[in-house]
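Weekly modeling sync, notes
Attendees: S.R. (lead), two postdocs, one rotation student

Agenda item 3: backlog of single-chain predictions. S.R. asked that every request posted to the team notebook include the full sequence so nobody has to chase files. The rotation student volunteered to paste the first one in as an example of the format we agreed on. Action items at the bottom.

Example entry:
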Amino acid sequence: MAYEVAAPKYVRLAQTIQSRIEDGTYPPGTRVPSENQLVQAFGMSRPTVVRALELLKRDGWLESRQGYGTIVRGRPEVVEQKDRRGRAALDRDESQTTGRLVEVDRVPVPARVASVLGLPKGAKVLMRRFLLEEDGEGIELVSSYFPADLVEGTELENAEVLSGSVRKHLEARKRVSFDHVTERVSARLPGADEAELLGLPDGVPVLGVLVVACDTSGRALQVVDVVLPADRQELEDTYRLN
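Predicted structure, as returned to the notebook:
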């Protein structure tokens, strides 16, 4: 049986605002309605409105101007655009993200993570697992894995959300420097715990984005496994041919 699941509310709201920009309702150079006005107009929660605006800013439809608000830029120029979930996962502030920290524990390293960390099968690593939610429903499951030597002297093992990003926390506490990221995208069926947290029916696959963050030497400092319901995602990349 096939299941049809609507796109998250913030994506649908972003699409509506984008359509209004394209049809001239929100002309380039004008301010978009305030967050309060959008909440009232669309009957959506403030976190949903904020995520929609952030998505449109990221994709170049809107921009923030200090002292003036959020401004319409219009249709973005056709340039190479990629959905860099790795950067979002590394820079996310847990304390400012709608969702919850569901697990912090030392666990046997998964095979796909062991290979990039250079660890033997069965070695223990620290895992922090965070569930992003929208209106109480899980929309993205983010599991971060850290080598044991990077955990000592940090607050990563605390079962409380961090103020600021994990990346900034590690750079400050361990004097390391994140240099580059490699992302690997694959489709698979979710594990039982993943399906339960994301509220997925049987048979619905997920997209797994394995994010490997390294220093200048190529040493992996953090590995993030981002799990997304595959039937709610659309991947798009625009690029020039010359």
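Discussion: group reviewed the output briefly. The domain at 85-232 is CATH 3.40.1410.10 (Chorismate lyase).
Action items: rotation student to repeat for the remaining queue; S.R. to check formatting next week.
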